[in-house]
Design a protein that fits this description.
With 548 residues, the protein is of the alpha+beta class. It has four domains: 135 residues, no CATH class; 112 residues, no CATH class; 128 residues, Muramoyl-pentapeptide Carboxypeptidase, domain 2 (2-Layer Sandwich), CATH 3.30.1380; 123 residues, no CATH class. 55% of the residues lie in helices and 7% in strands. The longest helix is centred in the middle third of the chain and has 55 residues. It is flat, with a radius of gyration of 34 Å.
């Protein structure tokens, strides 16, 4: 990360015997002069030449040109590093210009000494000439503007790290790509992965056989010991060889996975660039990113392996509209935004995500553009997303559990993979809230024997009676499946404690959801056509993204 810009001013006309004050110019601020043949760079000779021949406006145009020629891969975290570099590059020519003034004075002094002339006696510093003063003022103004626009606060600097580095190929990876291409390497990955699995299965069998032979050796008769020992030695050698092969295969699989993953990542980057209208537009888009965005005083943190927090300013503006609406409600009169967030149960909001496809389609997730947030993600999962096929029919285990729950409790059945007619967010929230409550109450039957027996009677028919034990077993199986393998599977142990099917699948209050949709103009994932992304809110109509 570039160091913070020091306070600096252009060195005024110094006395020939006096070095510029270190509070103005420091040696570690100097850098080698680039190729002087390139007159389009902000080097000291070019700045001086332009200043002397064409004035300050030419210098400013050069600065503007450099600012507008940002790297094409400026995205997510990298964009903020670029901003820092740009801010420092704005100040650099003026720092170097002051250094050059002093060096010229030293050169003049040396020339006078060589010719036998006596240098003028030391006097008080002269008043700077108008050109130098104008350049100094321009420098100060440029740095102020750069810092105001690009450096929101210190935290914005700390949070930045180049997400794009994860998409760059190593020299070894690029060499293999150039040799046979990514397609063949992806095919090799499939083959090597299968070989690795087969070898690991064989190792398990060999180790099991070794344990049996070792156990048998302990009780073997003397005439059998030599034979058994030979078998054990041979098996140990085979296991050692297989372990070495396993290590080699694992390394190759990991290497190939890296290439395939990075290639997919770069493909997404290309799609994002196209969607935004080209490289220059992509840079502009992420220059308008707000890394310090909040909603009701809650900082919007990074999402899904991204190291960059915040959302795009368009999303931030939509969230502020929803916040204004919520703060105007009578029940929150006199409260601070963070107090309203606590009253609504908002614990965590995540925004920007590393470039990747969405969970439900081949579209780029709006999170990658900074146009989506997730609220309390662990407690509000993407339900109905994990499906299986029965013939041509697509089924969701989560949806089936919700229907079984309603049947056991004597409530109206809710298929969470349907969308209500009318597209009313309040009605959709009511529908999903009832379904979530049914799931919660269904799993609570495990600890209420009386309610369990009543539910068993409710499900029983003359042809097929259901006992409390039968129902409890079904509930336990449903719970284990959801918790371990389905939509409720959490990435961490801490997340698993919150993403608990026994708590239902939604804890977002109705007034929060309605405010975000109706006042903020956002689309709620709970209103997607099939599976419901309860945690998710996105801004549509900007890039044409329909679902996460």
């Amino acid at each position: 990360m570039p160091k913070r810009l020091r306070r600096r001013a252009i060195a005024r006309r110094h006395d020939a015997d006096q070095e510029p004050s270190l509070s103005v110019i420091r040696e570690d601020d100097y850098e080698p002069t680039p190729d002087p043949a390139n007159t389009n760079t902000l080097t000291p000779p070019n700045v001086l030449r332009l200043q002397n021949t064409h004035g300050n406006q030419a210098v400013q145009r050069m600065i503007a040109t450099q600012k507008n020629s940002a790297p094409s891969n400026v995205v997510q975290r990298g964009v903020f590093d670029w901003m820092m570099e740009t801010a420092e590059s704005i100040a650099r020519p003026y720092i170097n210009y002051g250094k050059m003034i002093w060096e010229q004075a030293q050169a003049q002094k040396a020339a006078q000494a060589a010719s036998g002339q006596t240098p003028a006696p030391a006097t008080t510093p002269q008043t700077p000439d108008p050109a130098t003063e104008a350049l100094e003022e321009a420098a100060d103004q440029e740095v102020k503007l750069a810092k105001a626009k690009l450096l929101t606060d210190d935290q914005a600097q700390i949070e930045r790290q180049r997400a794009l580095d994860q998409a760059r190929f190593t020299e070894k990876e690029q060499k293999e790509i150039d040799a046979i291409g990514v397609e063949k390497l992806a095919g090799e990955l499939t083959t090597k992965h299968a070989e690795l699995k087969k070898l690991q299965d064989a190792l398990r069998v060999s180790r099991d056989s070794l344990r049996k032979l070792t156990k048998k050796l302990k009780t073997a008769k003397s005439d059998k010991v030599a034979t058994l020992q030979k078998q054990i030695d041979d098996l140990n050698k085979a296991i050692t060889d297989d372990v070495a092969d396993e290590k080699t295969l694992k390394e190759r699989v990991a290497f190939l996975k890296s290439i395939v993953r990075k290639h997919g990542y770069e493909g997404v980057m290309d799609q994002m660039e196209t969607a935004l209208g080209g490289k220059d537009e992509m840079v502009k888009w992420f220059n308008e990113f707000d890394p310090n965005a909040t909603f009701l005083g809650v900082k919007i943190i990074e999402s899904d392996k991204s190291e960059v927090a915040g959302v795009h300013k368009k999303m931030s503006e939509a969230l502020q509209k929803a916040e204004t609406h919520l703060m105007s409600l009578p029940q929150y009169a006199g409260k601070e935004p963070i107090e309203v967030a606590e009253a609504l149960g908002i614990r965590r909001i995540s925004g920007l995500r590393q470039p990747k496809k969405s969970a439900s389609s081949d579209n780029i997730s709006p999170h990658c553009y900074g146009l989506a947030i997730d609220i309390n993600a662990m407690a509000n999962p993407y339900v109905g997303l994990n499906t299986y096929k029965v013939g041509k029919e697509t089924r969701s285990f989560t949806a089936e559990v919700v229907i079984r729950a309603a049947q056991a409790l004597g409530r109206s059945e809710k298929n969470i993979r349907t969308l209500l007619p009318g597209n009313d967010v309040g009605e959709m929230w009511d529908f999903l809230e009832e379904a979530s409550d049914s799931m919660r109450d269904y799993f609570a039957l495990r600890n209420d024997e009386t309610a369990l027996q009543d539910a068993a009677k409710r499900l029983s028919t003359p042809d097929k009676p259901v006992t409390a034990a039968d129902l409890k077993k079904q509930i336990e199986e449903d719970y284990k499946w959801l918790y371990d393998k389905s939509d409720f599977k959490a990435p961490t142990e801490a997340g698993a404690k919150e993403r608990d099917p026994a708590k239902g699948f939604m804890d977002l209050p109705k007034e929060l959801v309605v405010a975000l949709v109706e006042a903020g103009g956002l689309t709620w994932g709970g209103m997607f056509q099939t599976a419901k992304d309860i945690q998710h809110f996105q801004l549509n109509g900007v890039l044409g993204n329909d679902e996460d």
